[in-house]
Write a structure and sequence with these properties.
The chain is globular. It has one domain: 3-Layer(aba) Sandwich (Rossmann fold). 46% of the residues lie in helices and 12% in strands. By secondary structure, it is of the alpha/beta class. It has 12 helices and 7 strands. The strands form 2 sheets. Strands 2-1-3-4-7 form a 5-stranded parallel sheet, sandwiched between helices. The termini are far apart. Helix 5 runs parallel beside helix 12. It comes from Bacteroides muris. GO terms for molecular function: hydrolase activity, acting on ester bonds. Keywords: Hydrolase, Signal.
């Protein structure tokens, strides 16, 4: 009798198993965690996870003289540049055919063309329908561009990204005033925003320079301009407090201790100790390009 009951129970257990009826309170465990990928091997899985809208970031080799450098990246903690990155992403994927425009405004470092055009041409190679225009004036301060006609000139270029590169001439004023510098930056940014609302802006810090002295009956000598670091801090603080992205070239390439020495010892500064050799400006453009690509990849991978 007992054997008969056991045999019946076994038949019932087998019947329930074949029909898929639940055997208890626990849900049935799926055979694979991701059925649509069950047949894929490891190589296929890795390929599936790769993004098609990221770009390879080139390695920029610094001269051996460069020391105490930091990671080359720009700061955009609140996503000021997201609209610009999205336009580049759609351009790279072929979804958009609209030309993306970068306008780089600044002083003699921009007026010399090599720095901004190096970065622009490299960006164009990667993204295709992209233009870069530089608007520079020798000896310019921020306040130099706070004129309606100059703001109109910039607006007529219809930028999707506006890069502002100042600070060298402000810091060469031996009566430099941080409060005045901040007010001049704010005047320029306010005028640009009023005329071009929604256009993202990226500020860059100056690369660093020396100031010259000529003592009586002695040749001209040079010493580190101590006001550059102060001006850089004002630029960084202003950008952070007013919703602008910033690329701190000065800090990345050595800061107060090494920025000027790095350029000088590498033979990339001109004899005036303010401007740079073509190779120096080209290196600056390559570094800006690299920082832009890193930020773009951060956006599309987020």
């Amino acid at each position: 009798m007992k054997k008969s009951r056991i045999w019946r129970f076994c038949l019932l257990f087998l019947f329930l198993g074949l029909t898929g009826a639940p055997l208890g309170a626990q849900d049935k465990v799926p055979e694979t965690l991701c059925p649509q990928l069950a047949a894929a091997d490891c190589d296929t899985l890795l390929t599936c996870r790769q993004r098609t809208d990221t770009v390879p970031v080139p390695l920029v080799t610094l001269p051996p003289a460069f020391r105490e450098v930091r990671e080359n990246c720009l700061t955009d903690s609140i996503g000021v540049l997201n609209a610009f990155w999205e336009k580049l992403r759609l351009l790279r994927l072929g979804v958009s055919v609209d030309t993306v425009r970068i306008v780089h405004v600044g002083d003699s470092h921009i007026r010399g063309h090599i720095f901004p055009r190096t970065a622009g041409e490299l960006m164009q190679r990667v993204f295709g329908a992209l233009t870069s225009t530089d608007v520079g004036i020798n000896g310019a301060f921020c306040v130099t561009f706070t004129r309606p006609d100059r703001v109109e000139e910039i607006a007529a270029l219809h930028p999707d990204l506006l890069i502002l590169s100042f600070g060298t001439n402000e810091s060469h004023n031996r009566r430099y005033n941080a409060l005045l510098h901040r007010r001049q930056m704010d005047d320029l940014v306010r005028m640009l925003r009023d005329r071009m609302p929604g256009v993202p802006m990226l500020m860059t810090t100056p690369p660093g320079s020396y100031e010259s002295f000529r003592q009586r009956r002695r040749k001209q000598t040079y010493k580190l301009n101590p006001r550059t670091a102060v001006a850089v801090q004002e630029i960084l603080r202003y950008a952070d407090e007013n919703g602008l992205a910033v690329w701190d070239m000065y800090g990345i390439l050595g800061g107060m201790r090494r920025a000027c020495l790095n350029w000088q010892e590498a033979g990339l500064m001109r004899p005036d100790h303010v401007h740079y050799m073509p190779e120096g400006y080209r290196l600056q453009g390559e570094l800006l390009f690299q920082a832009l690509l890193k930020a773009y990849n951060d956006y599309v991978e987020y």
